[in-house]
Amino acid sequence: MTLSQDEFGVLGSLVVRRDGRSVPVTAAKHRIVLATLLLGANRSVPTSDLIRRVWGDAPPDRAAQTLPVYVMRLRRALGEPQLIHTTPTGYRIDLPPGALDLHRFEALADEAAALVAAEDFAAACPVYERALDCWHGPPLADVPSESLHETEVPNLAEQRLRVVSELVDVKLRLGRCDEVIADLRRLTSQHPLRERFWSQLMVALYRADRQADALDAYRQASTALARELGVDPSDSLRAVHHAILTGDPALHQPAASTWAPVSQLPAPVGNFVGRGAELARVTGMLSRGAATVVVCGPPGVGKTAFAISACHAVRDRYPDGQLYVNLRGHATSPPLSTSAVLARFLRAMGVRSDHIPVDEDELVRGYRARLRGKRVLITLDNAASVEQVRPLLPGDPGCSVVVTSRNELRLRATSVRLDVLRGDEAWKLLARSLGPEAAVAQFDAVGELARLCGYLPLALRIALGNLVGSSHVDVASYVEELRGGDRLAALAVDNDDTAAVRRAFDLSYAALPPDAARLFRLTGLLPGPDFSVFGAAALLDASEDVARGLLEDLASAHLVQRVGADRFALHDLLHDYAADRAAAAGEDLEAARRRLFEWYLRTAIEVGDVLYPELGVSGPPRMTPEVARAWLDAERPSVLAATEHCAAHGPLPLAWRLIDAVGGYFGSHGHHVEFVHAIDAALGASRAAGDHDAETLMLVWLAAEHRNLGNLRVAQRYLGSARPTGRTVWMHAGLNGVVHLELGEFPAAFASFERLMGLSGEEWAGPHVRIGALAGLGALRLMRGERVVAESLLSEGLELARAADGVNMEATCAGLLARCHTAAGDYARAVELLRHALASWYRTGARHARAEAMAHLAAALCLGGEHAEALRTAQRALALVQELGGSPRIESEIHNALGLVLRHLGKPARAVAAHLRALELATSADYRYGLARSHVHLVRALAADGRRAEALRHARVGRDLAARSGFGDFERMAAAALDEVT
């Protein structure tokens, strides 16, 4: 990783280098301030935190006046006054990526974990090792702060040990058992109570044919646990011991793969003829082993049909699946971006949405890692260039690729060029559709038709569209028309590959009624891969019935093809031909295109009226929630393409208005990569237009997307770079409050929600502004343990939301209010409110919110005594969030709910495992509330499992964390649990 000119270190002694030279920070208290700022780099560190770190729990009276002096002197020592910023609540140090060793460590550990998830263990190993190389001793070794050493240093050390353990797992998977035994001996000596290291040592010894040593390691672990804690080994360690005693073959096997075969190949093309030699050559190569084949040839020659037929013929040779994508490299609309293709492929291969990176280089690495060791056949259809294809090539020798392109791409590949059909093959293709009797009776005319179509499959199929279905097939008359009606081909140069296709197009187009011909011309403006009857009506400025009838005419002429109920698509050549015809006819293209894009926007706003009515409605609803969600699902690619077209070519405002209209849907349905790229395009448009409010709006949407992905610090950076004015202030304030709240930064969250409450009095503010403020303040009070105040705020919010028909905000307030009732012991009322919230979330399709509500419902059901239903609810919530790739924050809540249920069902060991997973997820998301909840739950689960010493440790950590963070209920619960255990 390339470092910036500045380098800072906290993983060892405090390190500061500016422009390559070491900068001494000699004063002890200055080092404490700097270390605290570095641990919270790129976000505001509250003054109260800095005071506690410098002076402890009993600061001097003038600490608040002394702290700015320390910061001023620290700025001077660093030689850069602007490096440390004063914020409304404290101070912030801004560091570029890679400047802090902790950030490098975390980034490398995440990269390695992603490679492990993709089962690329060989690549993960050196990345883990590079992560551990960031450490140079005990963290903050020369920073004399008791507070930091009590709270932050243990967390940092825990992160390092977790990565060490993960690296050992990888080496065990790679069979490097002898190599890890010495390391594990040292680790078990230094950390004798960490059962994970003992388990790994036992497995390594057993795999190295040292069964006696493995059993002795178990005896050492048992002795250490009994001596230090007075407990027996855990169930998991005993299970490894039992497996060694019985010679369980599973100890020699790596964990089962999570790979699920995928099949995306389109159905084979009907009436496929000819290409025998080429087909045999390609299928032979694909059958023998990994190959890359480029199928090239002129437009309309049948490259896609050939490639799909070849791939179907060998699909059994690729048991791990077949991937397919139409790259749209020769369409007039923008080709699919590399990021969009890779995101699609990764989702198809079972990668969760929150594990799919946004950065293109990381996408490529993740895609290739996921394919490593697999046999997958990849079809890249309609490629325009080598640059479009190269990032999509797998790096593994077990996979094969078939590329189709009009161009002979210079890849390390076997090139197969398709020319037109032979005369007998073309005659056969026509005869199969015309019928053998009619074809034989008009043998010469059929042959002449094939010749006039240039023996091109697409031209032949277009001609068949004009002939098949007639009461009497008169091929000779059609041939005469084709000879005489070649107006477009007369303009074509000799040897033009598309001339024969255009002759067939021209005749089919000339036979269309005027209105159908006009609709066909306008289809050349469509930005996406397909379109609906309603989009066609917008292009025409006509009714839906009229558009449907005209599309039936075009489908009968094979000028468009049906791809679903009320949806159509057309070949790239037809798309180009339609655009040429529109220009030749003098059509007002910009007016038609604008009608289409405004229809997208208008319908998206109507969808928002149905799914998000609390934001204000533009009129009575004209669709059901089910229809609204279906429209978004179907039109997603077209809306994104329209957004990028408007961002590039105008009208610029339509780009950011489309983003704003569909943002709620994209944020809750997992299409993060595509949406982030579309927001970036709209952000560029807003800056090009000099529209400050639009720029802020797009920055807020980017922040919202990163919050959905669990990247709370990234979301903060986007919010910090926005300068909201006008009506964008309320969105910014609301999201800023939510992000601070989830990070446990209560003063900043309170300030944001109070700002939102102040805005609710503005003339333009709808009820949603006040409801949002009430919900935010209620959630904050709930997290602080101020249940009565929270209940009052949330009850008011719920009533206002009901009056405004604000289904989403009503669900939010109901869910939070239910948690108040759960805390008060009114479980029946909590269950009632949560079921109401779930019904609302189901209506709007907000599946992440539904999963979170199900977690709290499971907890309320469990505490109310309905344990079986609670278990089913928690399990459904977990399945839903894992299917979606939900945020680690929500998944942490679900695992805690599941652990609670398991403990009440008398399964404390499984409960402990669930709460530990919740703790891990909360740590990864920097979700402090979830951390406190996990520690509190662990106390009772561990105590129920007989692990008293561990329960005491978690009780103390949970109590201290809750006290520092202001989580009143958790502080009281942890203290009570500590009293019980002691």
Automatic annotation (TrEMBL):
The ranges the UniProt entry gives for DNA binding are 1-95
Q: Which Pfam families match?
A: BTAD (PF03704), NB-ARC (PF00931), TPR_7 (PF13176), Trans_reg_C (PF00486)
Entries under InterPro entries matching the protein: AAA+_ATPase, AfsR-DnrI-RedD_regulator, BTAD, NB-ARC, OmpR/PhoB-type_DNA-bd, P-loop_NTPase, Sig_transdc_resp-reg_C-effctor, TPR-like_helical_dom_sf
**Which keywords are on file for this protein?**
DNA-binding, Transcription, Transcription regulation
Question: Is Membrane given among the entry's keywords?
Answer: no
Asked if the record carries the keyword Nucleotidyltransferase, the reply is no
The UniProt entry's sequence similarity note says: Belongs to the AfsR/DnrI/RedD regulatory family.
Protein name from the UniProt record: BTAD domain-containing putative transcriptional regulator
Q: Which organism is it from?
A: Saccharothrix hoggarensis
